[in-house]
Design a protein that fits this description.
This protein has 12 helices and 8 strands. It has helices at 10-14, 43-54, 60-63, 69-74, 108-119, 139-152, 169-176, 195-198, 204-217, 235-247, 274-287, 304-308; strands at 58-59, 79-82, 123-128, 157-161, 183-185, 222-229, 252-257, 291-294.
Length: 309
């Protein structure tokens, strides 16, 4: 039996996925447009880091090695990761650690709400690791966090970026209704052909159905999803997924470039040109998405406030 709280990362995390990762000897060179400046200076960045440590909070910005963490922290925004920092799955594109999670912390909603209030954030994204060990996949904890934030910061808009709740969808959707967010986000991540390699334990149609079911149950709430490119897909497959998302009522879309966290993660198969991202964004508008952000360094929560507006 695994010991709770022990984190596996890198090779230890990806060694047991269905399709073995073979490290490449010479990774693709990053093009000039993919390089990120470390925007980690200034008092806002320091205050955010200090408060996160003080309140024992996690951000996906740090845990998933997001390339925009410096910029977002520097302007006083962040995507908070609830339910711990140990994921029950081993997705080989992601740098969040795998392991047996600890029980949910009942004090986390209050601590997170206090941090949001102290930082005077007007828009926050709440995401989590996969919690396949919980009966509702962690949905009730999401609702508790949303409720706590709304109680302390009435003018703060809240977006939740949830797991797929596979096998627990009905229970999870009912639990989320206790305190509804402004935006419901669930990422498809990649094209269906690559799911077994990139999202072991997930199901493409199941994720689409989750998005559609949320919209059907809560039609006034914006729905959102995100994709990565550079995992082995082609442009036509991305466009097909975009059409699937619109067919399932999704309002908002993000597409960004995949960057491998280490040589033990899935390798980058291509760097997509900025003009191709612009074509994806134009196609999204033509398909009827209410908003779309498509660019090399876009991530699901990057400029989420502007996209929702």
């Amino acid at each position: 039996m695994k010991q709770a709280g022990i984190k596996q990362k890198g090779e230890a995390k990806t060694a047991r996925i269905p399709i073995r990762i073979i490290p490449v000897d010479t990774p693709l060179a990053k093009p000039a447009w993919i390089r990120v400046k470390a925007g980690n200076s200034g008092s806002a960045f320091g205050e955010m880091k200090r408060l996160l440590r003080e309140q024992a909070l996690h951000t996906v910005c740090e845990e998933a090695a997001c390339p925009n963490a410096g910029e977002c922290f520097g302007r006083g925004t962040a995507s908070f990761m609830i339910l711990g920092d140990l994921c029950t799955r081993r997705c080989p594109f992601c740098d969040v650690g795998h392991g047996t999670p600890l029980p949910p912390d009942p004090d986390e909603p209050a601590r997170l709400a206090e941090a949001v209030a102290r930082l005077a954030l007007r828009y926050v994204v709440i995401t989590s690791v996969d919690r396949d060990d919980l009966r509702d996949g962690g949905a009730a904890h999401f609702a508790a966090v949303v409720h706590a934030i709304q109680a302390q910061s009435a003018n703060t808009r809240v977006e939740i970026l949830t797991p797929d709740f596979r096998g627990r969808e009905s229970l999870a959707l009912a639990a989320l209704g206790a305190s509804l967010p402004n935006v419901f986000n669930h990422n498809l991540e990649t094209v269906p052909r690559l799911y077994r390699a990139a999202r072991p334990g997930a199901d493409y149609l199941g994720s689409l159905q989750l998005l559609a079911a949320f919209k059907a149950r809560y039609p006034d709430i914006l729905t959102k999803s995100g994709l990565m490119v550079g995992l082995g897909e082609n442009d036509d497959e991305i466009l097909a997924v975009m059409r699937d998302l619109r067919a399932h009522g999704v309002d908002l879309l993000t597409i960004g470039q995949y960057l491998a966290p280490s040589r033990h993660h899935l390798p980058v198969t291509r760097y997509v040109l900025p003009e191709t991202f612009a074509q994806f964004e134009a196609a999204a508008r033509n398909m009827g998405f209410s908003g779309a952000a498509c660019a090399p360094l876009v991530r699901s929560s990057y400029w989420a406030d502007k996209l929702a507006e």
